[in-house]
Amino acid sequence: MPMLFMSGAAITFGLNIAGQQEEERLKTDLKLIGRAISLPISDALLNNDLATVQANLDSVFNIGRVYGASVYDVNGQQVAEAGVTETDLSDSWLARQTVQTGVSQDDYRQVEGREVFSQFLPIVDRGGRIIGLLQINRRASDFDERFEQLSQVAWISWFIFAVVTIAVLVFGHYRGVGRHVLYLRNIMQQVADGRRDVRVDTQGPSEIVAISQGLNEMLEAITRAEHEIRDRRQEEQRLNEALRAQEKMAAIGSVSSGVAHELGAPLTVIDNRAKKLLRHATADDDKRQLQAIRGQVHRLTRLVNQLLAFSRTPVSERQDVAIKTLIERAQTSISFELEHDDIHCVFDYSGNDTCRVDISRMELALVNVLRNAYQAAESEVCIVVSRTPRATEIMIMDDGEGLTERAQTHATSPFYSSKTTGEGTGLGLTIVQHIMSDHEGELKLENRPEGGCCVILSLPHAAFRTGEPNDIE
């Protein structure tokens, strides 16, 4: 009953809307008819051809939907007529408004004792001047009859719908839905008891199928949410472990800084004493032992410098420096460490790009990468500077054996080294990564197709500008 009541109310509302639309359509028909004949009537009036005016009115009247049509001059005096019309519109307010404003008017009126709907349209010449008035009448009962036809169709349709609905509810739908609803209720009870693996068989009427599909989607969403929660917990655990590792590295860096400062002075004293003794030594064995002492001191000194670099604070002051000058300084610094000069370095760059960086730290990064390249190379180290849409890259390549899979994964981990024991501290690439991160850049490691390793130091374009290179001391 509520459904039938609501559908009846909807039909009533719809009929009101449809009636208004139908009335507007009928009014529009009159306006279109009037516009269709206004131009030929206008030309006929200008030529004082009343026969043509009368012919146009008769043609409109013969359409059958027009009750009367007439033409008036600007003073409201009738010029020609067909059907039921008014002979004088001089006292009509609507007629005066149409002539004065040039805008069509319409209203329900009494003409010869009958109620009609009148459409007033101005007649204008081709220059836009109003030279007369056209009145087209239609019986008001035409509107009521059309609305009555719509009402009959609508209420007959509603009655048929009501009969069919009651028949379906009484004889079919109730029995067909009941068992499916009970089945859905049992599934929901299982879900409430904690079972998330149950799913509903999508069968039965379309409504039940839609509900079953919605329930299955809800259960799938719950399962995905539980998996996401589990994954999020695992990610939080991983982040916590990473945070603990960072805290551990921060503590190591703090301790390393203190230890390095404490070892620096004694190592300098030992090296100076060994150097002094070496000048006065005469026996070959004594010289060999003293050289070994100095060699170990130099290795420890390099470790101390690496520890100090590892514990340095982030970038604090940046200066402009030419890339070419920066790379050449790093080459000069690494040349003092080379034990063999049979490794050929290729660097051919004539660009004038200038970067704004912490010069000492960026030079340290280049020195660490070059040191690894020289130690891994068989015969050649190549330095290339290139530009990409987002960054400028300094690529340092060697022709050695390349990186193992484990080395590619852990190369930047602190204290990890693929060299033999005693040859590396495992801090070089860690320091490079920190320096590049402090400059909003990136360190990338990859093996070359032709063999060897390629280390890429990528700095964003925001750190670069094009201009004359600035040399530094």
From TrEMBL:
<dbReference type="Pfam" id="PF00512">
    <property type="entry name" value="HisKA"/>
</dbReference>
<dbReference type="InterPro" id="IPR003661">
    <property type="entry name" value="HisK_dim/P_dom"/>
</dbReference>
<keyword id="KW-0418">Kinase</keyword>
<protein>
    <recommendedName>
        <fullName>histidine kinase</fullName>
        <ecNumber>2.7.13.3</ecNumber>
    </recommendedName>
</protein>
<keyword id="KW-0067">ATP-binding</keyword>
<keyword id="KW-0812">Transmembrane</keyword>
<feature type="domain" description="HAMP">
    <location>
        <begin position="175"/>
        <end position="227"/>
    </location>
</feature>
<keyword id="KW-0175">Coiled coil</keyword>
<dbReference type="InterPro" id="IPR036890">
    <property type="entry name" value="HATPase_C_sf"/>
</dbReference>
<keyword id="KW-0472">Membrane</keyword>
<keyword id="KW-0902">Two-component regulatory system</keyword>
<dbReference type="GO" id="GO:0000155">
    <property type="term" value="F:phosphorelay sensor kinase activity"/>
</dbReference>
<feature type="domain" description="Histidine kinase">
    <location>
        <begin position="258"/>
        <end position="463"/>
    </location>
</feature>
<dbReference type="Pfam" id="PF02518">
    <property type="entry name" value="HATPase_c"/>
</dbReference>
<dbReference type="InterPro" id="IPR003660">
    <property type="entry name" value="HAMP_dom"/>
</dbReference>
<dbReference type="GO" id="GO:0005524">
    <property type="term" value="F:ATP binding"/>
</dbReference>
<keyword id="KW-0808">Transferase</keyword>
<keyword id="KW-1133">Transmembrane helix</keyword>
<dbReference type="Pfam" id="PF00672">
    <property type="entry name" value="HAMP"/>
</dbReference>
<keyword id="KW-0597">Phosphoprotein</keyword>
<keyword id="KW-0547">Nucleotide-binding</keyword>
<feature type="coiled-coil region">
    <location>
        <begin position="215"/>
        <end position="249"/>
    </location>
</feature>
<dbReference type="InterPro" id="IPR003594">
    <property type="entry name" value="HATPase_dom"/>
</dbReference>
<feature type="transmembrane region" description="Helical">
    <location>
        <begin position="155"/>
        <end position="174"/>
    </location>
</feature>
<dbReference type="GO" id="GO:0016020">
    <property type="term" value="C:membrane"/>
</dbReference>
<dbReference type="InterPro" id="IPR005467">
    <property type="entry name" value="His_kinase_dom"/>
</dbReference>
<dbReference type="InterPro" id="IPR036097">
    <property type="entry name" value="HisK_dim/P_sf"/>
</dbReference>
<dbReference type="InterPro" id="IPR004358">
    <property type="entry name" value="Sig_transdc_His_kin-like_C"/>
</dbReference>
